[in-house]
Amino acid sequence: MLKLILLIVIVLAVLWLARAGRRRVNPPAARPGPGAPSAREAMVSCAQCGLHLPSGEALPGRGGVFCSEGHRAAYEKEHAPK
Ligand SMILES: [Zn+2]
Q1: 76 CA to middle of ligand 1, Å?
Q2: pLDDT digits over 32-67, tens only?
Q3: Residue 62 falls within a domain, yes or no?
Q4: How many CB atoms lie within 10 A of CB 44?
Q5: From ligand 1's centre to the CA of 75, what distance in Å?
Q6: Which of 23, 56, 67, 68 is most buried, judged by most C-beta within 10 A?
């Protein structure tokens, strides 16, 4: 009977260690590097505020590309032909 309890304790200890070891290994591997997915995409800067953003997210407009519709509208209003 004592051997059975000892066996259960050993099995539980091995399982616990395996889980703890896996948990220690996983987070750094699963964490994506900062800016990694968009690193390959060309970066452009907003003509209104200079914010850098991937070209796929930029809004093309008259006079350059913009980070948002609001900045495109503001830039076009400022640079509107008189
Ligand atoms: Zn902007």
Answers
A1: 12
A2: 666 555 457 899 999 999 999 999 999 999 999 999
A3: yes
A4: 19
A5: 9
A6: 67
Boundaries of domain holding 63: 43-78
Cα 3 to the center of its chain, rounded Å: 51
pLDDT for 45 equals: 97
Q: Around 47, how many Cα atoms within 13 Å sit in the side-chain half-sphere?
A: 19
Is position 5 within any domain?
Answer: yes
Measure 46 CA to ligand 1 centroid, in angstroms: 5
The verdict on residue 15 lying in a domain is yes
For 3-35, how does the pLDDT look when each residue is reduced to its tens digit (9 = 90+)?
Answer: 887 887 888 888 898 888 877 655 555 556 665
Q: Quick one: tokens of 81?
A: 């032909």
Give distance in angstroms: CA of 33 to centre of ligand 1.
25
